[in-house]
Amino acid sequence: MSDSKKPQSIDTSDQYAVRRAKLDEMRSNGLDPFQKNWEQTHTSVEAQGTWVEDEAACPEVSCAGRLVGKRVMGKASFAHIQDRAGKLQLYVQREVLGEEAYAFFKKQLDLGDFVGVRGKVFKTKTGEVTLRVEELQLVTKALRPLPEKWHGLQDDDQRYRQRYLDLISNEDSRRVFQLRSRVIAAIRRYLQDQDFLEVETPVLQPEAGGAAARPFQTHFNALDCDFYLRIALELHLKRMLVGGFDRVFELSRVFRNEGLSRRHNPEFTMLEVYQAYSDYRGMMKLIRGMIDRICIDVLGSHEITRYDGQVINLGGEWREARYKDLVVEATGKSDWFDLTREQKIDWCREAGIEIDHVEEREDFEITNNVFEKRVEHTLIQPTFVTHLPKQLVPLAKLSPDDPETVEVFELCINGQEIAPAYSEQNDPLVQRQQLEFQAGEETQKIDEDFLLALEHGMPPAGGMGVGIDRLIILLTGVPSIRDVILFPSMKPLRDIEREKADAEPEA
After folding, report:
1. Is the per-residue pLDDT at 84 higher than 70?
2. Which domains does the chain have, with CATH numbers?
3. CB neighbours of 387 closer than 8 A, spacing ≥ 6?
4. What pTM value is reported for the model?
């Protein structure tokens, strides 16, 4: 890779050259830090936990981590290393390490280097448990400096592109991804405790079904035909219900070739759950139990504080409201669902609600645009929005009391949809009609193999999807989906540079 294509250096000084010179000197003296390893017996936190009042009784510990602080003095110095558990203060003495090793520590080690240390802990006069270093070894040389002299990355674009630097310098960022891991583990435990079976279904599929979304397309060379990255997990999981597995779930990546925003990333993590002999009401109980388990096992509280300071209460009663009632309330028009398509469009224009490609929009899409622009963002506290129009959810059962709607809920919290769920349509004839309506003229895109499976009989069932990234946004209080995805989708720097070059006028 040429220098012009590399990510820009964090530091514009000649620190890279200085560190390279140090590395070259080490290698000329027979030391190659990239060939060394170090056996850890304790993390930083575990090492601190070995301290006892009788310091002579403290055991020897061996730790390793990145050097993130260094205060060099005469015959003794302090430093800090950071590992997966946290930070540990080091006390480095010339009389303990020896003249040569202490000089190496002072002159050759830089912030960002990985070191291994061995010794016993003691407590300083200020009360900080500290490791008195008896042995020190450089195990990896960092050729580039830490971000902005350890004050962290201030540029969001750089934080997302070089997440590894963000994780080094930003403790809040590390906590987000540690919590994400614990939440996913808690979800798995909860579902397994409910006797759900975790399964894996194909990522590459001959038909992109289970949702109304634009797929990523690729060509399968070995089969000489086009395939799609899945946009949902649904249709293969329902095949599992046909096959006799009554409770199944999958927690994995799905892909939608659509826009980027504060709440959308084309590659995201989805949980889908299907339970035979259940319905959308059963899914309400399941998601309540799941979030309650997360609050107890991971968060230790049912209250979440948003980035703007607003508190969301995940305990107590959750509101339930019908889709139609919320739209009527938002528009102030009790006869909204009796209006013509043109009257609804006129109202939207007067209300300042933009509708993309309005001439192509169906009546139900106009209404849903109102819901998304005027209702969804106001649902901060947990709300089950029920009985959506049947055109929006073609894989759900029709509501017996209103055949224009389906037995569905969208759980909205924090102003966004967290989990849609519904009573699954298991009538293969009705299902075909709904899918043909959704496909329009592109009926060749219908998953005929799924319909064939349905004709063999699928038990009544409830199904639910949970957007894991949006759930983590809720639980951590961060403002953007990019803050909860380790490596969010971004345009490559080489393309940005090429576009800049193309836009520059010729001399």
Report:
1. yes
2. 14-145 (2.40.50.140), 168-318+381-495 (3.30.930.10)
3. 322, 323, 324, 399, 402, 405, 406, 407, 408
4. 0.89
